[in-house]
Design a protein that fits this description.
The protein is 47% helix and 21% strand. With 697 residues, it is an alpha+beta fold. A five-stranded antiparallel sheet has the order 1-2-3-5-4. A five-stranded mixed sheet has the order 11-13-14-16-15. The C terminus is likely disordered.
Amino acid sequence: MKPKPSTTLAIVGLRVEQDLVSLRRRTRVAADKVGLDRTPARGLAAAAYEVGRQLSAHRRDVVAVIRRADGPSLQVIFRITATADEAAELSARIEAAMNPLGALVDRLALDAVEGGLSVCLMALLPLGAVQRNGAIDEAEETQSPATKDPPTLQDHVRELQAELEETNRGVVALYAELEGQTQRMRRAEDRVRMLLDLDGVEDYAICMLTPGGDIESWNAGAARLFGYEADEIIGRNVDCFYAPSDCEADLPAEDLRAARSAGRHESEGIRIRRGGSAFDAHVLVTPVRDSRQALRGFSLVVRDVTERKRMEDDLRRRAEELAAANRAKEDFLATLSHELRTPLNAMLGWTRLLRMGKLDAEAQERALETIERNAHAQEQLIADILDVSRIVTGKLRLDLRPIDLPPIIDAALDAVRPTANAKGVQLRCAMHFTGTVLGDPDRLQQVVWNLLANAIKFTPPGGQVAVALARVGPNLVITVTDSGEGIGARFLPFIFDRFMQADASVTRPHGGLGLGLSIVRHIIELHGGKVHAWSEGPGHGSTFTVHLPVRAVQHAEVPHPGQPSLSGVKVLVVDDDADARQVVSATLSGCGAETMTVESARAAMQVLEEFQPDVLVSDISMPGEDGYTLIRRVRALGPALNELPAVALSGFAHPEEQRRALTAGYHSFVPKPVEVAELTTVVRRLADRRAPPTDPL
């Protein structure tokens, strides 16, 4: 006989707790009867027990039907009589609890049916169980009810004992399952506690928020960062960490909305500590969801990045300063090229005209004056560059001695007067101080000359430039005032910076490298003073004031010898550059010296004993053997030349070069270009130091 499409195996009404145990046992018995494997049988029984427990917790009229259905399958169907509203409410209550049970059965369905609610649990039967199920059906049909023996007391006891054993097995399995879940929960709690309470996470504030943004947990790092203890902050909203302006813009809620929609939200901004102090924060907000992806809250991680932001701002500022310095350097190099080529162009042009021999006497005089003026201008440019190099390396030195400032100012005025007269600028001077101060006369004259030359350059024809000297308290004040172009307010704070010019374009009306005023400031600061600039703006002229501290010093007369005579002095000149040799030789010969010139150290050694000079003048930089090699070879010749006075010439006017020359054996050092008075004075002094030969008895 073929099996019926559907066969009811048991019906259990769920009224008390024992009915749930009976339902589970009968499901297992039905599973064994229809040939369901052990694992799906246990899953179906466990799912039936849990669904029955959930339903009976809300209603007392639940009926469970265990049946074998076509498919073939074993089903447990729960029926609840209820109205449509009651069925909908009950379905909403138990749906979430039933979803995890779907893994235990092949099908789980919760449906609203006419007159109530239906829950169906299904486990599919293996194919080998079909024939046996048919045999069972036939046996049940052929056995009449009259032939079945009524259950005895022993049958009831046996059934009860089987239920107790089944219950015991269920309790043991449930206990094992609960123990496993407890261990997993304990490990999860340990991880959360370590995350929230770890003292080593000093830089991170970690807390949990409710979906509305209220604080639920608080770690030690958060307490250190924000200054709140856990009992002070838990329950408050996260907007207490935002600035008032951010709260008005609804930024706290916007951050939570962004995290909820994107899965995370990372940002940087200002956050507020306890007491109102602010700091730069890096903030990460992450939504926390349950197994059904319902929002349970947010995790908030905050880190103080104030120091990092400060370093970034510092690096950005330094990068901007470097970029500005690089632009200034490029402008300076372009200006330097122009300023060096301009006098060279004039000198070369007039030199070519002189060589052509087509100039009359007046034009020749004008050519020589132009060449000399441009040579001095180029010399001044090079001197400024060297001074800046010494300033940058900290090797600019002062020769301090008691001096009177009025003669120094007069000398500076005499130096700039031809330029002022040629331009039509009137010079005025008022000096009300006659005391003696401690200073470097050459450097202070350089300061006054620079200020006067700068004032004349920027004063139009018909204007005035005035210099004044006065005593104001403990300071000596030199004031240079002009009626020229003036200084704009934007450029005035940078007037003493190196390479700075108010107009650095190729169309600028005035030349120069922009170094003069920076050299002035450094020289005055080395004297312990200060220099200031003031202007009411373009078209209103400018005023520069120099403040020097007045120190009590003893007055000492400083002799100013004239150009000495070198009559009777023999000088050997060594230089690989023919023009330089001729200039030095002509300078010394013009003062009466007997000179011999050679082009190399080797040639000097060949003529040294024959010529027997009183003074050796040698260039340092020469091909082959330089001046250092020459002086060492001279000193090695023996007692006769050990004390031969020697002067080193060099275009490298660095103090280190001077020290190296003196250490090598030279007695004096003269930088190029050579000043006539300086070289003749040095040669005369060294010649006088050499002892005259002893007359024979």
